Amino acid sequence: MHDNLLCVNDDFTMLTTIKHCSLIIGRQLAPIAVLIAKTMMELWSKLSPRKMVSF
């Protein structure tokens, strides 16, 4: 917060200098990853009903 007030915040610069690499199957897996996770959590909650998970 102190850096923001003095305008010496360099977070954006730091984040933009990180080299990013794409996953091999990232584009194919991304659309169904949330659905798979939600389905697995719903199945787990049916097997163990004392632990409730809400999405």
Compact description:
By secondary structure, the chain is mostly helical.
Give an overview in words.
The chain has a domain at 24-55. Helix content is 60%, strand content 0%. The chain contains 3 helices and no strands. The longest helix is centred in the middle third of the chain and has 22 residues, at 26-47. The mean pLDDT is 77.
Features of the shown structure:
3 helices; mainly alpha; 55 residues
SSE blueprint and pairings:
Layout (H helix, E strand, L loop, with lengths): L1 H5 L4 H6 L9 H22 L8
| Rg over C-alpha atoms, rounded to the nearest angstrom | 20 Å
Principal-axes shape call: elongated
Main pleated sheet: none
Tell me what portion of residues adopts beta-strand conformation: under 5%
Global mean pLDDT: 77
Q: What's the total count of β strands?
A: 0
Helix/strand structural class = mainly alpha
Helix content: 55-70%
N-to-C SSE string, H for helix and E for strand: HHH
Flag low-confidence runs. Answer: none
Compute the separation of the termini in Å.
Answer: 32 Å
Number of helices: 3
